[in-house]
Fold this protein.
Amino acid sequence: MNILSEAWSWLTTSAHWYGQDGIWTRLAQHLVLTVVCLLISCLIALPVALVLGHLGKGGALAVNISNIGRAVPTFAVLVLLLLTPIGRFGEGPTVVALVLFAVPPLLTNAYVGMREVDQDVVRAARGMGMTGRQMLFQVEVPLALPLIMTGVRIAAVQLVATATIAALAGGGGLGRIITAGFNLASTAQVVAGAVLVAAFALIVEGLFELAQRLAPGRVRGGNTG
Amino acid sequence: MPDRSVAGPLTDPGPSHPCGGTSPRTGEPDGRPATAPGCNGRVTAPPDDCLARNEWICGAYLSSRRDILWGAVLQHLQLTAVSVLIGLVIAVPLALAARRWRWAAGPVLGVTTILYTVPSLAMFSLLLPVYGLSASLVVAGLVLYSLTLLVRNILAGLRAVPEETRQAARGMGYGPVRLLVAVELPLALPAAMAGLRIATVSAVSLVTIGAIVGYGGLGNLIYSGMNTYFKAQVLTASVLCVVIAVAADLLLLLAQRLLTPWTRRQS
């Protein structure tokens, strides 16, 4: 209990919230890293997945890439990138590693979503004289949207977690509060940082959950009418 | 470049002179004169091997650091195996409880999902007041992560047992315990094994984060290699991590085939 009250008093000390290493700065870094890398990952993964799914090609790659991604330690990739020339560009290794780990869930879910679209509907669309592009954007993507959004949600949570680990390799973000706490041998600061990181991750997950509930039924995947 | 002076025990002093103790190499060509004094006052030729040049792939690293590497691999395997086994021992009763009592399913799945959302570094940090800087901290964190994957998959496997099968067993006079052990659990095995494989592969990768408390198996080598810019060490340890993950996955796949011969004939 003692540690918890110490962590609480660390969190409620206003000096810890402001300044270059303050909580607000770290929170902003974490948020920017997550949002920017999520956008980059979506721009890379979604077009590839949608086209592959539309053509029905490359399925083995799109599905297995998630399993490969799981076997490679995030920390190892961060450090390897840090020691390459990319390491000279400040947050370069963090951004590249974050994107690398966010792409697989996006790719796999979007691809599976596209393949699971009822083929009768696709055939009907073709029979109505739709072109490939029309079928893709007016039929397949809307029907695959629930799974695509699930991929975005998994990727976002993954990004928050990976951005935390980036602190171990010198990257910015809330994880730095934890590593600095370990440096100072301050258990209170380590716990306080961990609470902030956990809260951030749970809020991101909660926001996606909320968005999926509020979305129209079609996007939720509840009914296809 | 951001500050990288994060704390952590060094298990290896980094790429050093063969007789030890010199500054870390930077990867530039070794410009010292050929008569530079070596250790113990003896005159030795400057090393011009891949360690001195700080190359990514280095055979001399493998041979000179064999013991360190072997120790790290053993620690990695131990941490992974212990955590996954404890996770399994806890997950089976939880999944059975969630299957048996409808009201238990929501809380069990909810809590394990929340645990899974907490980033690994934060999870280890939250356990710090309980376990201190110990191997138990890493094991406890990994157990909590494997729980989600295991409970979800075992429960999915149990729920997928056809009601007809269950009724047939009951009709043959099977009691609840025998029904569970002889019918339901074997039929849930493929899904459970899939969960076990994912949990094991994830655990192998997450052990590396244990380096923050000094118990990270190969992660320790990656961590110290990062602080000394020792490329061969970082690459070797990373590759070994992936090799362990793939080997564990294949081993479990083999075990699954041997345990569930009936699934082979169908497919």
Remarks:
- DSSP finds ten helices and no strands in chain A.
- The mean pLDDT of chain A is 88.
- Chain A touches chain B through 47 residues (CB under 8 Å).
